[in-house]
Amino acid sequence: MIKVGIVGASGYSGSELLRFLANHSGKLQVALCTSETYSGQCVESVLPNLRGFLSTTFEPLDIRALKARVDVVVLAVPHKVAMSFVPQILAQGLRVVDFSADYRLGDADTYEAWYHAEHTSAELMPLAVYGLPERYREQIRTAQLVANPGCYPTSAVLAALPLVVQGAVALDSIIVDSKSGISGAGPKPSENTHYPNRESNVVAYNIGVHRHTPEIEQELSAVASEPVRVTFTPHLVPMTRGILSTVYMRLTAELSTENVLALYEKFYGDEPFVRVLPSSAYPQTKSVLGSNYCDIGVEVDTRTRRVVAMAAIDNLGKGAAGAVVQNLNLMFGLNETDGLKVPGMMP
Fold first, then answer.
1. Catalytic residue among 33, 42, 151, 294
2. SS3 readout for 109-157
3. Same domain? 110 vs 161
4. Of 26, 59, 132, 209, which is most buried with the most CB atoms under 10 A?
5. Which residues, other chains included, contact 279 with Cβ-Cβ below 8 Å and sequence gap of 6+?
6. Cβ-count burial of 317 within 10 angstroms (0-12 exposed, 13-18 middle, 19+ buried)?
7. pLDDT digits (tens, 9 = 90+) for 92-140
8. Is 151 a catalytic residue?
9. Domain for residue 205, yes or no?
10. C-alpha to C-alpha distances, 189 to 181, 194, 256, 260, nearest whole angstrom
11. What does pTM read for this prediction?
């Protein structure tokens, strides 16, 4: 039995992780839940959906006592906070999965340019494995530190990956258009997430400067073996959760929709959580709601010689907590799908 400690367990990502682990076979056991906000309160009183599934109490974090209580720590805390915890946790010989962006990027300069903060443990960045199993499954198995991917990059990279690997698209004109539910902003209210401002309203934000841009570029560049630049425009839409990313790529060869579909089906044929949809079937967020699945659809626009690749994920599932469980399963030699074979919820 692997004892899991979750730091920041009362937030959206942390609480969703608790929900997934409640469905696990039991080989991953929640041994510690910390929350500064709800310390001393019973988990099920704060998260009533877990009533009857998890009888434990939120605690304050005592970072020095982690070694005695858990085998692995999941950090569900904001960027800049995670980097202050990770060195102390690794020094205890524990393994870490980090929800934040602090170790996703390959170098401190890029991190500091996009996050406008000094990285205080840059020496650990090369140690981190990017936690996208579809790319780094074998490295994740032995990793001490796994950097869980961002939600937007998960959808965008999975949508574009097969064609970039194949060298079938121009690398200088990739456009990523993403729509997200507002839970991606976390539970703390803001002007952007205030209900009256979001209901019946769609808005683009952080055009050209969104912090997930270098993450998308890093992962596509790694498989292209040359720099890739993308135009990334995220939007907030009036729903709680889910992401639909539409990626536009210019083909460098004559390919039909059937050709591209065959390429995607072969590329993802053995992936347990990527579902390539048949011709003329397009992904929708409700199909993956509450799950760890990524649904992908493709269509070739022969008139413009562009391929339109679409990916739908739950931003709190495959885009966050579901991916953590998938990574934990890999790290501890468990069945990769344990706790995650749950269909989406429709309608």
1. 151
2. HHHHHHHCCCCCCHHHHHHCEECCHHHHHHHHHHCCEEECCCHHHHHHH
3. no
4. 132
5. 257, 258, 261
6. buried
7. 999 999 999 999 999 999 999 999 999 999 999 999 999 999 999 999 9
8. yes
9. yes
10. 14, 6, 45, 42
11. 0.97
